[in-house]
Design brief:
This protein folds into 2 domains: 357 residues, Alkaline Phosphatase, subunit A, CATH 3.40.720; 75 residues, Arylsulfatase, C-terminal domain (2-Layer Sandwich). The chain contains 11 helices and 18 strands.
């Protein structure tokens, strides 16, 4: 395969689905087996304080693509989707699957395509209409919906939806490798996005290969995952104790199978002498609780929606041997909204970053230089009327219009067990952080898309945020 200008490297962007930052061997989890993610961490930087823009799938994915927060791009909740994992299956009529979101909003794939990159998406889409190529991806092989059975995978091919019985992570990787093989001898750099559905549920035994389950996870004690009670003030669906091990076994198996396929991609790049001219990025869309805080889910696992670190902190690994520093752990507070400006500065096109984005480039870190001039004091998150501001030491969760609110000292209480809101001595801190929170969002939100003023409940989004009845309701709590 032809080599390209090292200042315009290839991009392999790998996205997992519902993977907590804690769910990798390189993050200190001795029970989950992730040798290829660990390999990426050794060959690059592991970002230990990397946050999603919203702790649920579709909004976070929209932010990764556009660099905008949900109150700028208008995708505020998981888009209601067809799924062969739910009642009604693919025959269920879901209007959001016919809606095009992110119209007129430049994506990182479009910006790269404009600079001569060949672009491809293989894997989960979950951003509305996915039957035709969207958002700058020319080669288009998405699983267009929000969820799928692992052995019955709908994939768009030449504008038609076909079902495959190949294991999901395998088929996404097969299609990605086909794209890479078609690049052989080409003169253009590539941008390949591989969006796995792993480790999103379903987690039952029949959805995953028997070998890993039988040989390892059936006997794993899962001591790396806490089994905690639900915090006071939250409602959530109960997970029966006997289901805990099955859920964890399926979750960990899905991660290991995805990891094996990531190894296939890395091995191919190395075999074609492309590894040192390919920026490899691994990220998750949102975090995940698998017993943490008594939950099996993310930001919409509770009512009201939560902003626990286990929901909002995601794994992020970036590697390019010979260029990106190797075997490093970075602890700067960074977010998915920083990704697009970082990428564009890294390839030498910072001027192409659209105006009005909230993020800042951390490209210097990828070149072995500090970002001391910005020293990320805060990182922000939103899920409709629930917003978060977090420093290295404190986190404030503010729910509009009237609470309940939370304040945690995440330095001394990283598991977020002690809510300091309303405790003596915290009023000045809360007042200052609340002002920072309001000022930051006021600088970036589109007033028509302001999530703090919309009826977003964690039950899903059916249409554009400006449309009447765009959001599904959830009250009282139901599964």
């Amino acid at each position: 395969m032809a080599s390209h200008d090292p200042d315009q490297p290839n991009l392999l962007f790998i996205l997992s689905d519902d993977q907590g930052a804690w769910a990798m061997g390189c993050a200190g989890n001795a029970e989950v087996r992730s040798p290829n993610l660990d390999r990426l961490a050794r060959q690059g930087i592991r970002f230990d304080n990397f946050f999603c823009t919203s702790p649920v799938c579709s909004p976070a994915r929209a932010s990764i693509l556009t660099g905008r927060i949900p109150s700028q791009h208008g995708v505020h909740d998981a888009l209601m989707w067809q799924s062969n994992t739910s009642k009604g299956g693919l025959d269920r009529d879901v209007p959001a699957d016919r809606v095009q979101f992110l119209l007129g909003m430049p994506t990182y794939a479009e910006l790269l395509r404009d600079r001569g990159y060949d672009t491809c998406l293989s894997g989960k889409w979950h951003l509305g209409d996915g039957m035709e190529p969207r958002c700058g991806f020319d080669v288009w092989n998405p699983m267009p919906y929000g969820g799928t059975n692992y052995f019955n995978v709908p994939i768009v091919e030449d504008g038609e939806l076909n079902n495959h019985d190949t294991y999901a992570s395998d088929i996404f990787t097969d299609n990605a490798l086909s794209f890479l093989e078609q690049q052989a001898g080409g003169q253009s750099p590539f941008c390949l996005a591989v969006h796995y559905t792993a480790p999103h549920k379903p987690w039952q035994r029949e959805h995953h290969p028997d070998k890993l389950w039988d040989e390892y996870y059936d006997n794993c004690p899962f001591q790396s995952v806490p089994d905690e009670p639900l915090p006071v003030g939250f409602n959530a669906s109960a997970t029966k104790a006997e289901k805990r091990k099955e859920h964890l076994a399926g979750y960990f198996t899905a991660i290991e199978e995805m990891d094996r396929n990531i190894g296939r991609l890395l091995d191919y790049l190395e075999s074609q002498d492309l590894r040192d001219n390919t920026l490899v990025v691994f990220m998750a869309d949102n975090g995940m609780n698998m017993g943490h805080h008594g939950l099996f889910g993310k930001g919409n696992a509770t009512w009201p929606q939560n902003m626990f670190d286990t929901s909002v902190k995601v794994p992020c690994l970036i590697s390019r041997p010979g260029h990106v520093p190797e075997n490093k752990v970075n602890t700067d507070l960074l977010s998915q909204y920083d990704w697009l400006p970082t990428l564009m500065e890294y390839i030498g096109s910072p001027e192409s970053v659209p105006d009005g984005l909230p993020g800042s480039s951390f490209s210097p870190l990828l070149c072995g230089e500090p970002i001391s001039e910005r020293e990320s004091i805060y990182v922000f998150d939103e899920y409709g009327p629930v917003r978060m501001i977090r420093s290295q030491e404190y986190k404030l969760v503010w729910r509009y219009p009237s609470g309940p609110h939370e304040l945690y000292n995440v330095k001394e209480d990283p598991a977020e067990h002690i809510n300091l809101f309303g405790k003596p001595g915290q009023a000045d801190r809360i007042r200052a952080m609340r002002q920072e929170l309001d000022d930051w969002f006021a600088s970036y939100v589109d007033p028509e898309l302001d999530g703090a003023k919309l009826p977003i409940t964690g039950r899903g989004q059916l249409d554009h945020a400006t449309k009447e009845d765009a959001f599904a309701y959830r009250f009282p709590w139901t599964d």
